């Protein structure tokens, strides 16, 4: 099937070169290069591979003005080669680079957390209302000329809020909260609207799926309250690699798409960028099948659902009540399920809506509920992994957390149970293994992030319940790792800094020594376990 096109949340249409985002346009897929932006040949080759893999847009980082200007050379070489995929400049900290990039590419991403505000230092700041208003005026003074330049060149703007790079100003007033993330975006959006600049796309990302999804839903509510309808870019940042990264992305992105929220997506993986597109396409295809087959109560509307709290149920053995979600077949055999437990099941193309309708019919009943989803043997293991992550993920985030059962002949029992546990971990409803918060890398990354992540996983995957961040640079590193117990962050060419929580405890270690030092740091913190 093709990309989905159904009754999504209403949004304005934003032209971006030969394509467009939002409105009646189909879902757009994106990825980002991880080659140095000054290496024109490498960037052109990788951008071509990304475009050939199915991307509608390709993003490249631009640390400084020289990098931003070289985007023009990359764009010209791609166009000469017959590749017309729009390019997006990714800017952090350097507003001058954003101004330069607006003259070179079709779209520029700026981060409200560091476009005007300085880099995050986790300092608690105090403002009077008048002082805070003066800070907003500082944003206006820098943003308005940038919008004028974008208007002049027909350049689209993406406002990209990351949980890991909220400014100290926002953090001091709103805390490290969805409200703070949303307000970070709204401050800039209000100025865009006042200036009648409508070519704006918004993203609001986090490595924590529950934070990401709840924040996007809150942003939609706030925009609706203020009469805004800007299109949304969805992604789970620092998702990692392998099945963990795919599941986490599918849960976060898919649960929003299933409710009609989202106009463009990126599946961020700590792998080759072109590997992201087949996953994104599987996700889009699953949503397309779902949208084409509404169940009893339709695909569901976000306003009609309740998120963030568990459905009330009485415990029956290990199922329901305050128990962690059980996996049927792993924690308890189907033949041993106690009386007083209800099973709701679906093999419907729109399993989310079908299960919602069945549970809604239970009314105020507090009987524990097993959610059983079935997938045909004709579906490949990769298709089942993405589909089940979307379907179970959406239902778990809505509070249906008593027990789950995955029926998928193409997986086999052991693989199905492992996938179920990974989905539960992605929704933070049951922790059963180490969580690796790892960025996909970009032109700022000065080491082979994929191989480093593999080495750290080999050494630390037995530390169940521990969260370890593996980050290519400091853009989101310390911030996203505020949710991690330990962190490994690229500090420069051949250098790494190590963190315990938010605190940098070892700076600029030679890269070959970093993993042994990380292990010693975990041991010193009392969190190491022998295999």
Silhouette: globular
Rg, rounded, reads 23 Å
Distance between the termini: 45 Å
Number of strands: 19
Strand-residue proportion? 15-25%
Q: Would you identify the regions where 5 or more consecutive residues have pLDDT less than 50? A: 1-6, 298-304
Name the structural class: alpha/beta
Structure keywords:
globular; alpha/beta
Secondary-structure map with pairings?
Layout: E1 14-16, E2 19-21, E3 28-32, H1 40-52, E4 57-61, H2 65-80, E5 87-90, H3 95-101, E6 107-110, H4 129-153, E7 156-162, H5 168-174, H6 178-194, E8 200-205, H7 209-225, E9 232-234, H8 242-257, E10 264-265, H9 276-291, E11 326-327, E12 342-346, H10 351-360, E13 369-374, H11 381-397, E14 403-407, H12 413-426, E15 435-438, H13 449-460, E16 467-471, H14 477-480, E17 486-492, E18 495-500, E19 503-510, H15 511-524
Helix pairs in contact: 1-2, 2-3, 4-6, 5-6, 6-7, 7-8, 8-9, 8-11, 8-12, 9-11, 10-11, 11-12
